[in-house]
Amino acid sequence: MVRDTIEEYPTVKDIEVALKKIGRIDTQEFIRDNSSLFIHTKSETNVANTGKHLFYDLDSLVKLKKELDGQNRKEKSTAFVVETPASLSELEGDLGDLKKDDEVFHEDSGLTITRTQRTDHELKVKVDYIHRKESNRNLLNAVDRSATFRMTDTHEDDIFKVTQDFYNADQFSAVKTFFEDWDRRRQINGDTKVARADIRLTEIGNMTDRVDFVDDFLDYEPGNWDTRNVCHLGVRQADSDDDGIEEISDGGAEEFEDLEDKSELEEQIDQQLSNISQLALDGDSLRSNPIVKKCLKNNFYFDSANIYCVDTDNAKGVEIQLKFKENGRNAFDLTIEQEYEVHDGDREDDDFSPSFRHKTRKEFRDAVVDLFSQYKNMPHLMKEAGESYGLEDLPEVGPTKADNFRDAGYDSVAKVLDASVEELAEVNEVGETTAKIILGEEA
Q: How far is 170 from 333, CA to CA, in rounded Å?
């Protein structure tokens, strides 16, 4: 029976060939999360090495490789900023205590911290949660999921950069929910805030600056990538009351006629892409292109771009997509759409390793954040985001009590939490019992 079992499974060499481009860690995580696995070792001395030798039937290995590769292709990268006067060590200590106490940050999903890891300038955090979705029979499907993010100290005015790689939108939402509740807990406990703000193109108020942002990105060359070859530009029309819209003088600009939806405009732009790419190659502004002038004249700006990038030193090419999301998940997504080997200017489809994709997405994501900070001062962005935690978030405080607090001079959560029970009890419609609840004392 043992002999038959061994012969049915591929050799270690078979596995190495099948998983050459996948990597052991990705493979093990996928199998652990999605499959049942039988492992056979011939002696006790090999038990410690089972993590290096995966015994799995060959058909499943082929399927596994395809699924892993397809999943990795869908991975997105994003970033946002957090403001806190706390040091990285303080944040690490707080997160460690919350993890130790098994604190839940969202009751419905059971959102908890499962791992923290610290380096000199960065804190890596993993959270676990339950994702529930409706099936075709309108039944809730519960799936255990995790999300990982990194907080990096920028050494600039209490600003931290938070980066995240994810496959599903709920992973992004889980991290956002985590920060919202973490911020709430800290402020209720009298600790410093950890307020977050999204990196959104609409935060750049001037319409021409939004176009110039894309223009500058085409000339940024993150890492060793040439980013000047545009494949597609997506558009969005700004609200009529958008601040800072700068009118473009005639010079070829005219109103759009008989335009039913923005897809028709994107088709017109696609027809001009060779000209737009040439402008980038020559170092000229996109705004000198007639179709771009028409976009600006009618309050359209570019909210996404597909760009073919070449790393000539490594004979590699990738098509990346940068997309700014609005109306719900306000953030940007950066994905690798296609991968190529490049020889004498010719492209040949190829599949690069997960580690290469991760490194490449990181280079482009960092470029977006760095470039955005040139257009939008990060502390100003945090200030415009407003108070991350308002009076109505306090226990027992609704709109009426919040107005009463403001009338009494308590216009922020910090001022309320700094007051005594006696002082808060004097506020109209508050009283001693509510004051004790707000301050976390026995009522």
A: 14
Check pLDDT > 90 for residue 99: yes
**How many Cβ atoms are within 10 Å of 312's Cβ, its own excluded?**
11
Q: What are the start-end ranges of the H helices in 256-387? A: 262-271, 273-282, 290-297, 354-375, 378-385
* Architecture of the 76-198 domain: 2-Layer Sandwich (3.30)
Q: 9 φ, ψ to 5°?
A: -100, 145
Q: Per-residue pLDDT tens for 59-71?
A: 666 666 655 555 5
pLDDT at 38 over 90: no
The count of C-alpha atoms lying within 13 angstroms of the C-alpha of 223, restricted to the half-sphere facing its C-beta, is 19
Q: Which residue has the tokens 């892993």?
A: 68
DSSP 363-430: HHHHHHHHHHHHHS-HHHHHHHH--SS-GGGSTT--HHHHHHHHHTT--SHHHHHHS-HHHHHTSTTT
Domain boundaries, the chain: 2-73, 76-198, 204-352, 391-438
Beta strands in 140-289 (DSSP E): 140-156, 159-166, 195-198, 226-237
Q: Which one has a higher pLDDT value, 147 or 134?
A: 147
Q: Is 129 helix (H, G, I), strand (E, B) or coil?
A: strand
What does the alpha-carbon distance between residue 283 and residue 286 come to, in Å, rounded to a whole number?
A: 9
Please give the torsion angle defined by the CA atoms of residues 130, 135, 137 and 140, in that order, rounded to the nearest 10 degrees: 10
What is the band of 49 on the pLDDT scale with cuts at 50, 70, 90? very low
Axis-axis angle for helices 354-375, 207-218 (nearest 10)? 140
Distance separating alpha carbons of residues 256 and 368, to the nearest angstrom:
30
Pairing of strands 76-83, 159-166: antiparallel
Tell me the per-residue pLDDT of 300-340, one tens digit each, with 9 for 90 and over: 889 999 999 998 788 899 999 999 987 666 789 999 988 88
Tokens of 408: 């009494």
Structure tokens at 426: 């004097």
CATH architecture of 391-438: Orthogonal Bundle (1.10)
